[in-house]
Amino acid sequence: MKKLLILVLVLLLIPFGCEKREKNTLDTSNLKKSDQSRLTKEQRKVIPITYESSSLEEGLEALPFTIKIPNKLPFKVKPIESLYISDVGHNGKKLNVSYMLSHFSKSKFFGMNVTIYNYKPELESELESEEPNEIVQLKDGVSGTYTGISSSFGVSYKLDKSKKADEDDIEKDLIQNTLVFEKGGLYYELAFVANNGTAEQIKRYVTNIANQMM
């Protein structure tokens, strides 16, 4: 009887242990895996596995951590239809997730690529910036850094920071920058380009978006 009781307890505890491990890793059951058929066996070992969710909600549920999606924006943006999730360690634990916020009109443009890491990354924007970093104070005592470039878009336009964007040419006066910050073990990279205001106005937009993520 004693042995039977121990066996029952063991069988009851096993599912709880499995459930705990699953919650700490990426749930890929409903995600679409990127095609790696053209990669060599060695490349597959080192290149992150990328997944795409069929909806925003599905992507959020798959993550082993919680992220907040900003919804109070200064202009109408294209709805976020999916999340792109990279499994860096191939074990569902070391992840980065990205999505796009974009606004297009006849003469105005705002595009932001948001990437969130659950590990400390070596950001390209921090390595390549030739301009001095600008520290900005976010909510909850969090400090953010504008690095001076927007590596995710590859835009090379340089603007006078006091100049108003030209409404007649969407590519003439693109303002670019990247805001990075850390909160609760998550590292955020907000790379953006825009022409719908001065550099300072756009930074206020971006700072407001960043505050909604915390």
Quick summary:
The chain is an alpha+beta fold and 214 residues long.
Task: Give the helices and strands, then pairings.
Elements: H1 2-23, E1 32-33, H2 41-46, E2 49-52, H3 56-62, E3 84-87, E4 95-104, E5 109-117, H4 124-128, E6 134-137, E7 143-146, E8 175-183, E9 186-194, H5 199-212
Antiparallel strand pairs: 1-2, 2-3, 3-4, 4-5, 5-9, 6-7, 7-8, 8-9
Overview of the molecule:
It is built from five helices and nine strands. The chain is an alpha+beta fold and 214 residues long. A nine-stranded antiparallel sheet has the order 1-2-3-4-5-9-8-7-6, with helices on one face. The longest helix is centred in the N-terminal third of the chain and has 22 residues, at 2-23. Residues 3-21 and 151-168 have low confidence and may be disordered.
What's the end-to-end separation, in Å?
53 Å
Strand content: 25-35%
Poorly predicted spans: 3-21, 151-168
The H/E string reads HEHEHEEEHEEEEH
**What structural category arises from helix and sheet content?**
alpha+beta
User: What's the helical proportion of residues?
Assistant: 25-40%
Main β-sheet, spatial strand arrangement? 1-2-3-4-5-9-8-7-6
- Count of discrete alpha- or pi-helical segments spanning 4 or more residues: 5
Q: How many beta-strand elements?
A: 9
Mean pLDDT across residues: 80
Oligomer type: single chain
The shape, in one word, is globular
Radius of gyration from the alpha-carbon trace, in angstroms: 21 Å
Sheet with the most strands, sense and barrel status: 9 strands, antiparallel
Keywords:
single chain; 214 residues; alpha+beta; nine-stranded antiparallel β-sheet; 5 helices; 9 strands; 25% helix; globular; disordered N terminus
